[in-house]
Prior knowledge:
The complex is a heterodimer. Chain A is of the alpha/beta class.
Amino acid sequence: MGQHAGRFGEYGGAYVPETLVPALAELEQGMDDAFADTAFNADLASWLRDYAGRPTPVTHARRLSQETGGAQILLKREDLLHTGAHKLNNVLGQVLLAVRLGKRRIIAETGAGQHGVATATACACFGLRCVVYMGSEDMRRQALNVYKMRLLGAEVVAVESGTATLKDATNEAIRDWVSHVRDTHYVIGSAVGPHPYPTLVRRLQRVIGDEARAQCLERLERLPHVVVACVGGGSNAIGMFAAFLDDAAVELVGVEAAGRGLDTGAHAAPLSRGRPGVLHGAHSYLMQDGAGQVLGTHSISAGLDYPGVGPEHSALRDSGRVRYVSATDEQALAAFHRLSQLEGIIPALESAHALHAAAELAASRDAEDVVLVCLSGRGDKDIDTVREHDPA
Amino acid sequence: MSIRVAPRTRFDDAFSARDAGAPPGLIPYITAGFPHRDATAVLLRAAQDGGALAVETGIPFSDPLADGPTIQRAGWRALQNGMTLQLALEQVAAARAAGLEIPVAAMTYVNPVLAYGRDRFMRDAHAAGLDGLIVPDLPFDEADSVRDAAHGAGLAFIPLIAPTTPDERMRRIAASASGFVYCVSVTGVTGARSALPDEALALLDRVRAATPLPRALGFGLSRHEHVQALRGHAEAAVVGSALIDAVERAPQDAAGVVERFCESLIQGP
C-alpha cells in the first residue's frame, strides 16, 4: 500500500493496527482483480437483477411536488430493493468478493440494523457464517431487525462498551477482524473505514447513481437540476453523487442529521459542525471534543447516528462540489408523514432527512426543474419510533 | 522515508545495560488516570520499585480499537476521571521529579495527538520526561510525519510488528524504528491469555532476522512463566491487561499491587 493510496485530498488513509494492514492490501488487490474480471462483474450484475431486484424505479412524487409548489421531485426507489434499503448493493458485492478471496466467515457492524439484515441475507444465500455487532442501545431501538437477523441465521452480538451504539459496534467489529483476519471478511456497511473500503463501497453503490442518471435522461431527456441524499457514513449519497460529479451543472446536496438542532450539541452532523480527525481507520470530519475524544451523537434515525463520515464526503465538502446541509429530527418526522400521506410511500427516517431538504430546495425552484432524491430505504423499521413521537 | 536520525533515549541505555543472557526485562503497562485520576505518578514509580526495565503509560482514547475489554474498561474509567494527554504529561513530569529514572513510553491513539497538535505534543512530551511513543492505529504507511516529529523532538517512535506482517514489510518497519520494536504476540487485541501463543516465538525469530533492535513482546502475557519462556527470544516483555486486572481487584492499594505484581513476574510467585 503506497503512501497516498486511498486518499481523497487530505482525507482517507488506513489508520489501523498493523495486524490488519496485510488484509487490507489483500482486499485491495482482490477488489482490483475482481472488478477487472468480466465474469465477476456479470455475476454481480445477475445477483443485483435476479435476486435484489435491480434496477429500482424512479417515481415522480406528483402530489408531493404539487403541494411543495416548486420543482418536480423524483424519487430513486432504493426502498424497493430486497431487504428494504440500498445496503444490499454493497453487501452482495462484498460477499461475492469474500467468497472469491476464500473467506468463509463474515462479520459486520450495524446501527439501525439494515446493514446487518442485508449482510445476514447475503450470508444465508452463500452459506457463510455471519456475526453482526450491534450496540445494545440500538438493539433495544431496533428489536425487529435483531429478530430478522437471527431468523436469517446470523449471530447478533450485543456491544455494551462506550456509548453502546454504532460507533462502538464498529470498534468491536474491527477488534473481531484483528482477531480472525485470516479467515474472515469484514463487510463494512458504509463508505467509511480504512482504504480500500471507501472506494470499494462507492464502487458498489454507484449503481444507484448510474441507473438514476440513465433513467432521468431516458424519461426527461435531460439531467436533474439537483440531486439530494442523506449522509450518515454516506454510502447511498456517494453512490448517487458518483454518477453526477462530472456533470458540473447538477447541484449536489448531502443532508446530515441535525438531531435536536446543530446548536444543541445533540446531533450527528460532523461535516456541518465537526473537525477533521481519525476514527475507524480514516481521516475525515469527526465530532470530537477539544482533546480529540470522539463525542456521542444523537439522531432520531439510528442509521445516521454516527460521529464520523466517509472521507470522500470530507473532500467534496472542502472542494465545494457537494453542499452539505442538515435536517432536524422534527423536520425528518414531518417529511416522513408527508411522503406517507401524499405518495403512499413510507420512507426510512434516514431518507426522510433528504426528503425534507429536497422539498425546501424544490420550493424555491421553477415547476419545470427537477430535484432527484435518493429514497435510500423504507420505513417499516421506524414505525415504532415514529409512533412514540406521534402526538395522536 | 524518514529523513531524521533516530535520537538516543533512555531506552537505548536501558537495553544496552542488560546482560545478554538475562531473561527479558519487564515493561508494565499502566493506564494513566486509572484507577484514580492522580494515581499515574505513584504507579509509574511503583513499577520502577518493582524492578521494571521501563514502563508504558496508556493515555486513554474513546475508541481504542486495538484493545480488549480490560484496557478498554480502564481507559473508559480514566476518561471519566478526566484524563487527557496534557494531564498525563504533567503526571509523567511529576513522576520524574519524584525520582522516576526508567524509560517511559506513552501508548495512545493518533486522534488525541492530532487534536493536541502533533509537533507541540512531541515537544511537551519530551519536556515532561517521556522517551518514546507507541501509536497502535498508526501503521508504517501512515507514520512518516508523526515519526519525524517524534524523532525531531528527541522521542523514540516504537512501531508494532504483528504475526501477519510479511518479512519484507518487517524490514522496512524495523529500519524506521527507534528504541525497540513492539512485537504483537497474537493475531488479536490486548488482553491476558493463559498460554504464550505458538506464533509468538516464530515472530520474534523473524524479527531478529530483520533488525538488531531490542524486541519487546506484548499482548496476552500475564505470568512469570511467559516472561521466562522468552529468554533468548525477546529483550523485554510487556504486561498490561493482567496488571490492570490486579489493580482493579485492589484499587485502594494500587501502588503495592503494581510493585508486587512486577516483582512476581520477574522473580516468580
